[in-house]
Prior knowledge:
EC number: 1.14.99.-
Distance between the termini: 34 Å
Radius of gyration: 13 Å
GO molecular function, one term: dioxygenase activity
Number of strands: 5
Order of helices and strands: EHEEHEHE
Number of helices: 3
CATH architecture: 2-Layer Sandwich
Mean pLDDT: 91
Shape: globular
InterPro entries: DOPA-like_sf, DOPA_dioxygen
Helix content: 25-40%
Low-confidence stretches: none
Pfam families: DOPA_dioxygen
CATH class: Alpha Beta
CATH topology: Alpha-Beta Plaits
CATH superfamily: DOPA-like domains
Organism: Variovorax guangxiensis
Amino acid sequence: MPRRPENLYAQYHAHVYFGPDTLAEAKALCERAGRELMVVVGRVHERLVGPHPHWSCQLAFDAAEFDQVIGWLEANRDGLDVFVHGVTGDDLADHTTHAMWLGEESELDLRMFRR
């Protein structure tokens, strides 16, 4: 199991990353997560959004579901990379200190948080 962010936060986001070749797979994973887990499924972005260096779909969930959601994503992500972070209101810390990866890490564009 990947390393949990340092502290337990009330809310988390998991961003499923994909590209044109894995769009259908990512949509299916996010739809399935919405049905099987207590997560809120965001829009499937077929463009770069925020600091994310890949197309993505956000899954939002509470701390009580953390272990279940992360275990499920790890077992079902089928090679897709997932960026997970706590939600504290400090966007820079949330996307660095309070973050973990399932799969390969990517470099985020954090300039928007350093203004």
